[in-house]
Model the fold of this input.
Amino acid sequence: MTVLVTGATGYIGGAILNCLREAKVDVLAGVRATSTLPAGATVLLTGDLAEPGLKLPPMTAVIHAAGLGHRRGVPTATWRRANVDAAVNLARAAREAGAKRFILISTAHIHGRVHDGVVTDTTPPNPMDAYAESKLQAEHDVAAAFGPGLCLVRPVAVIGPGCPGNIQLLLKLLARGIPLPFGAVQNRRSFIERDDLAQIVRTVLQAPVMPESVLAAHWETISTPGLVQALAQGLGTKAKLPACPTHVLATVATVLGRSAMWQSLSGDFAANPAVARALGWEPAARLAETFEATARYYNTTRQKA
Done:
């Protein structure tokens, strides 16, 4: 089995690359430009995947982990080029190269930032921003371009040492001793540790029959106050969580143009990874332990800086 992993220098792609190498899978590390990769990885310089005319060497499978992640102020055309056009070009090139399996790293956010009840592998999509819309469009277009042998892996928010996003902001505020007014928030949110996500991808890749889609999420959920307390524990400090009324915080977030961030911090998004668990996957650690480890890593790197 020869497997191409795109985005091999990224936060998620790098973890998938390492996981497959540890499993003795013959891996091609797809990179856009010359980069430094772990020893033992064979580099495939792909260039800009969104450019037409992509050609690939013979391979068994492709794992597409490259793409544009959450950020503000991105034009719709940019989302489409990075997350749709690139994925479709790669899917066509993969089929021409003889690949029988294509794993697209999509996102659980196609179901929204918040969701009443529990999200499952069959929950209808409800994208709430241009990022999620582009990922959902990529799912449809890649399915048409590649055909049978496609699996959509939809991770919830990915965490772990060095993870990007809101967790870094919370860590900075906690490290400075700044109170976080989330004591009144009562919610349930799902997360997935980066290496757990990589293990799910490996499990899907090596399954006798690949499922059509897989939610990647820890089987536990955690509240925002709970994750803040876990981060504080990892930092070796005490979380200050005053109970500010949530409607006041919502108003402030709207005024500051951060409604989406507030939804992520206050709303519910609980996912049930039933398909992943049916394939035999189990998370390596409790969710709170992962947040603590993330904070310890932040502490270590901050002290070395």
Notes: The longest strand covers residues 26-31.
